[in-house]
Amino acid sequence: MPNLSIKNVPEDVVERLRARARAHHRSLQGELLDLACRAAASVGSEPDRTTHLRAEPGGTKTIEQIAAEHRDRQPEAIADAPSAVELIRRERDAR
After folding, report:
1. Phi first, then psi: what are they for 55, rounded to 5°?
2. Where would a tag sit more exposed on the chain, N or C end, judged by fewer CB atoms within 10 A?
3. Alpha carbon distance 87, 5 (integer Å)
4. Among the listed ranges 8-12, 17-21, 46-50, 82-86, which one has the minimum average pLDDT value?
């Protein structure tokens, strides 16, 4: 596969890309590849920068849209949050 290189990228841009990669649980390389693939796929059409903000027709969202919204809202895991099993057990035992 060919390689690409971008020179003289401003430091603030690099930091924002690193933050974006962390939010998407990817390496910087993986994030850049995803961005490049999306940009290449939208050549000839208007890029849609709000895909994860819009519901599909009929008011439903895809699992990818829901996951993207969740990653945007909560990029880091909550360290002391109860596990799903613990929450289910509490709910069951409360009945």
Report:
1. -80, 155
2. N
3. 47
4. 46-50
pLDDT digit string, tens, across residues 36-72: 888 888 777 654 555 545 555 566 778 888 888 888 8
Please report where in the chains the tokens 């699992």 appear, as a residue: 63
Average pLDDT, the chain: 82
What's the token pair of residue 7? 């020179």
- Site of tokens 């990669």: 21
What is the spatial distance between Cα 41 and Cα 43, in angstroms, rounded to a whole number? 6
What's the rounded Cα separation, in Å, for the pair 66 and 7? 35
Which is it for the CA torsion 59, 63, 68, 71, positive or negative?
positive
